[in-house]
Fold this protein.
Amino acid sequence: MNRLTAAALAFAALAPTLALADGHLPDLDGREIVIATENAYPPLQFVDPVTGDPVGWEYDAMEIIAARLNADITYETISWDAMIAAVAEGQFDMGMTGITIREDRAEMVDFSDSYMTSQMRMLVRADEDRFSDAQGFASDDDFLMGSQAGTTPFYVGVYEVLDGDEANPRIVLFETFGAAVQALLTEDVDMVLTDSTGGEGYVRANPDDLRIVGDPLGTEEFGFIFPPGSDLVGPINAAIASMREDGTLDALNQHWFVEYEFE
């Protein structure tokens, strides 16, 4: 049974003409969809520190999609560094964790249409006064950047902030994005590159400890991933289009980026 949250139910009811399991959308006849996620990327998906439950924008979006397509969802937690390969091999039906649509990844997996646009930003400690932009950070060899290998922030940091050397010792690698942010908070690194979606989520959760500095370093589109040739891409795209048309995507953005209060 789908685990629609109260917020998701409210979003799903926005447009009567595109109601749950609407006849204008494909009917998946109760098909189970197994989705891989990392649960470490607020507000898209993370573990609520109070309830211990996984929550977030992507969870609500996928529950609404499942309801509209008459599908049933199961979630499995997996590390980021294993996710794309695991989905490509068909171990999961889908993957979600704020995944940037990129040509090199599209050679391994199929992407849905974009469900969100974001910009790359520099996340620093709230009291950071040694640099305020990418040039200032790059100018001092003592400044360290925390990152996850193979992610869009990693490549932007290597090629747009630093010198293009993926083995640059100024890049400190972590298994999860959350671990990189924790290292920033404990002063083990000086900056973490993130898309504006994740960065704003962490700033809202830690307003006295973190802030974003500098100009955006590029724009990226987020999408869900599927094994190559998956027959789920079309139905998921149709559901995303319906949510864009009836205002549900906007309502999700309002809830998770403006109204949601981190404990």
Q: What stands out?
A: DSSP finds ten helices and 14 strands in the chain. The two ends are 28 Å apart (CA to CA). Confidence is low (pLDDT under 50) at residues 13-22.
